[in-house]
Amino acid sequence: MTAARASLRIALVAEDYYPQLGGVPEHVHHLALELNRRGHAATIVTSRMRGPQRDASFVRRVGTSVVLYANGGVSRITVGWRLTRRLTELFQAGRFDVVHIHGGLAPTFGLLAPLAAWRAGIPVVATFHSWFPRSAGYRVLKRPLQRMLDRHAALIAVSEPVVAAMSRYFRGAWEIVPNGVDVGYFQPNGRRPGDALTRGPRLLFLARLEPRNGLSTVLDAMPRILERFPAAELTVAGDGPWRGYYERRARSLGPRVRFLGRVFGDRPLHYGTADLYLCPTTRASFGVTLLEAMACGTPLVVSDNVGFRAVLGDGTEAAIVPNDDPAVWADTTIALIEDPGRRDAMSRAGLAKAARFAWPRIADQTLAIYQRILA
Questions:
Q1: Same structural domain for residues 172 and 230?
Q2: For a surface tag, which of 83, 170, 262, 337 has the fewest beta carbons within 10 Å of its beta carbon?
Q3: pLDDT value at residue 2
Q4: Can you list the alpha helix ranges (DSSP code H) found in 152-298?
Q5: 176 and 107 share a domain?
Q6: In this model, does residue 71 exceed pLDDT 60?
Q7: Going edge to edge, which strands form the sheet with 300-303?
Q8: What are the backbone angles phi and psi of residue 210, rounded to the nearest 5°?
Q9: pTM
Q10: Same structural domain, 203 and 109
């Protein structure tokens, strides 16, 4: 049997994983599913989190996850006794061929897991998921972190903006493997472009409720939208520590705004029954929810940031509007509601774009990297 066909044992290490929701958990989980479906043995290594956790058989948890609130968002670090040693023992016991870290250089696993893998004699691949304008930590620790990166067998970024952000501080042979979408799970469900005018417009916001995801912009745009379309409805899907604040802000809009709380398994239903998905996130490295919405045939109105531009390109599938400008968001939303033909064209373009990010394609790219470094 050739090396390219041999079954591989892969550890996918992630600070963020279920029950936390987001781009990294989705990427890691679906990559593991696709690798295992092909006969490889992928194990997800993450930390214990608060609340019930019904894990798949291929998940291992080490240490305890602690939530940090900073820069208008949520991040996690893992704490625990002798984490590096415990990771080393886990990697050795699993006899892994590759340790693939998602969130390279990020505390805690992004720094400790490479050390553990090298102690176990296993090559390290790291995927970087975050875009940022600047990093004081990278500037101060540039030299030791560069030495760590130099030992990695491969460096992956999910988008060109991530490469640009990392390249401000570090050199490396960066490869781009984007996030993916399950096009078998996220599918259109029958909502037609004309329904917005005959049944009333349905608008969707789906994201973690934190300031950088921009729900305030949509709430401030709603009075203008409701003035033109009194039957319009905004569904807010997501949860977080700022939920109470946003609910108070939405009280003046009455029943036209519904807060669903945390959603997961029913996301295709929410995307598919919306006439427009509104995504005013001000800072992003990619845009997994954009792919999910497009796979459901839902047109998009999105904020103008480098991560979304990396996914959308010329914006055929979406209307790209300035950040934090409720009047423009309202006018753009109204214009699209009034133009079913344009929304139909956006929907078809979105379906075609999502197909390019289907998980089998992403797994092919990732496996090619594994097989190259193991050759």
A1: no
A2: 262
A3: 39
A4: 160-167, 195-198, 215-228, 243-250, 267-272, 288-295
A5: yes
A6: no
A7: 257-261, 233-237, 202-206, 276-279, 300-303, 318-321
A8: -150, 155
A9: 0.90
A10: no
